Structure formats: structure tokens, C-alpha cells
Amino acid sequence: MNILVVEDEHKIARALKKILENQNHSIDIAYSGDEGMALATLGPYDMVILDRMLPRGFDGLNILKSMRGDKVNIPVLMLTGMGDEDKVVEGLKSGADDYMVKPFSVAELTARVQALIRRNKEYDVYRPYD
């Protein structure tokens, strides 16, 4: 599966890449909001792991809302340090399929990724770049 990770913290992004590649996924990384927006709305991804707070331009919620507005309905897992209940609710209402707070468990992350990908395969999801 092709997964886009939008994460500005290089150490976390590299760790996610390693974890997910060990699960036989292909990973692209965007380190800024602008780069994340471009890749998330154009690229052929099976899922996006998206941080909320990003430098340069768009934040995670802007990217998510743009994806959903463009009918890009691939699974999105928000992975962020913003764990207050109102932030979680806002992320889910904005179109996230799941929401995890940093720091995170590797086992839980990989299980959630697999669940989102499995669910996406079970439904006929419209993906405009296929």
C-alpha cells in the first residue's frame, strides 16, 4: 500500500517510514503543509497519516478539508500532539477516519493503519486519481 505521511518533525517522520515499511508499505513523506497539500490531493495514495500542526502554509485540518472537498475519500489518520477532546472531535468532524495522539504505541498505530486500509478495500471508494 502507498501511504503518505505528512509530518514536520523529521525524527517522527523517519520513524513512521521505518515502521510502515517494515509492514510492507511504500511511504512518501511531506515535511510541510504546502508539500502535504500538493501530495495529498494529487498522489495515488491508499491512505494519509496527517499531523495537525504543520509549517509553511496549510495545517492538517486545511489539508483534510481540501481532500474531502475534492472528493478524495481515502482513509486519513490524524496523528498529532493535540489530544484535547475538542481537538479530537474537530478532527473527526473535519473528515478524519481515525485520530491518534502522540506519543503513540507502534502496535496500536500499525493495527489502526491495517484496519483503515482493510475497511477501504471492503468498500468501493471513489478515488479521482485512479
Write the layout of secondary structure elements.
Blueprint: E1 2-6, H1 10-21, E2 26-30, H2 33-42, E3 47-50, H3 60-69, E4 76-80, H4 85-93, E5 98-101, H5 106-122
Parallel strand pairs: 1-2, 1-3, 3-4, 4-5
Helix pairs in contact: 2-3
Task: Characterise this structure.
The protein is an alpha/beta fold and 130 residues long. The protein has helices at 10-21, 33-42, 60-69, 85-93, 106-122; strands at 2-6, 26-30, 47-50, 76-80, 98-101. The protein has a single domain, classed as Rossmann fold. Helix content is 45%, strand content 18%. The chain is globular, with a radius of gyration of 13 Å.
Number of strand elements: 5
Structural class: alpha/beta
Biggest β-sheet: strands ordered side by side in the sheet: 2-1-3-4-5
Write the CATH fold name.
Answer: Rossmann fold
Q: Can you name the CATH architecture?
A: 3-Layer(aba) Sandwich
Rg calc: 13 Å
Mean pLDDT equals: 91
Features:
single chain; 130 residues; alpha/beta; Rossmann fold; 5-stranded parallel beta sheet; 5 helices; 45% helix; globular
